[in-house]
Amino acid sequence: MYKKFRLPGLVAALAIAILAIPALAMAANTIDSSLIPDGTYTVKVEQTVDSKHIKVTMDNGAETTLSAGRESVDFGKVKPGDSVKLSLIKGQVMVYLDLTNH
């Protein structure tokens, strides 16, 4: 009636669960940029998605993707690892300054 308990299947399920924990922890640390209060922030660039979007890490360790709020804002020269000071309004970058010397 009952299937025999299979140890390899249980071990595989536990391994998958253990491997998923870091991914879940990182996802929990990602926030929506629209939830960030308006203001000036210094952030570290993780990735330049395109000329209008960058992935950054905030000072508190939270990660988010920021978009340009004006046509004149262009992230084309920003590189991963750069430190950037920016002004956010409603989750969008209105102006920024790359603090890293290239």
Mean of pLDDT:
85
Q: What percent of residues adopt helix (DSSP H or I)?
A: 10-25%
The first-to-last residue Cα distance is: 70 Å
CATH arch. level architecture of the domain at 33-98? Beta Barrel
C-alpha geometry: elongated
User: Biggest sheet: strands side by side, in what order?
Assistant: 1-2-3-5-4
Helices and strands, in order, run as HEEEEE
Task: Tell me the number of strands.
Answer: 5
Which structural category fits the helices and strands?
alpha+beta
Largest sheet: 5 strands, mixed, barrel
User: CATH first level of the domain at 33-98: which class?
Assistant: Mainly Beta
Q: How would you describe this structure to a colleague?
A:
With 102 residues, this protein is α+β, with helices and mostly antiparallel strands. The chain has a domain at 33-98: Beta Barrel (OB fold (Dihydrolipoamide Acetyltransferase, E2P)). 22% of the residues lie in helices and 36% in strands. It contains one helix and five strands; from the N terminus they run αβββββ. The chain has one helix spanning 7-28; strands at 39-50, 53-57, 63-68, 83-89, 92-98. Strands 1-2-3-5-4 form a five-stranded mixed beta barrel. A hairpin with a 5-residue loop joins β2 and β3. The longest helix is centred in the first third of the chain and has 22 residues, at 7-28. The radius of gyration is 20 Å and the shape is elongated. 13% of the residues are buried.
